[in-house]
Amino acid sequence: MTDNNARIVSVDGEIAAGAARIFELIADPAQQPLWDGNDNLAEAPTGQRVHATGDVFSMTLTIGEVRDNHVVEFEEGRRIAWRPSVQGQQPPGHLWRWELEPIDDTRTRVTHTYDWTQLTDETRLVRARATTADKLRASLDRLAALAES
Questions:
Q1: Pick from 4, 2, 3, 8: which is nearest to 93 by CA?
Q2: 3-state secondary structure (DSSP) of residue 4
Q3: Has this prediction a pTM greater than 0.90?
Q4: Which residues pair with 70 in a beta bridge?
Q5: What is the CA radius of gyration of the chain?
Q6: Phi, psi torsion values for 2, nearest 5 degrees
Q7: Which pLDDT belongs to residue 5?
Q8: 3 state SS of 79
Q9: Treating both helix axes as pointing N-terminal to C-terminal, what angle do 19-27 and 133-148 enclose, rounded to 10 degrees?
Q10: Residue 141, SS3 per DSSP
Q11: Which residues pair with 72 in a beta bridge?
């Protein structure tokens, strides 16, 4: 689903795994390249597992640039969101969010959102517009495959 301004893109689905297992794959940046449906993430140093709002983790993109990711929402096992930025700079305003709602011990409803309503960097608008529901769905599907294996 995409809002009328196409600046908030969101997908959801059910994953046949517990919320704790799924959340661990999201909150550990070293795992993120395994499920990234944008094929944008190359690697992240180990030992950066997110534990709180205010944490910052770094990620190397496939183009070789490093991004700092500023965690702005965090509830263990339920919600995590971050704003990426060029290393050492303030975030330009876009946000990635994951929300997990346990259905039972072995099934979880997962919502993945890309929100660029506050994006101020004009050079990033083309890339933001290219981040479609299909790309988010690819991440969700890859995450499901990992969590369910």
A1: 8
A2: coil
A3: yes
A4: 56, 83
A5: 14
A6: -130, 140
A7: 60
A8: strand
A9: 120
A10: helix
A11: none
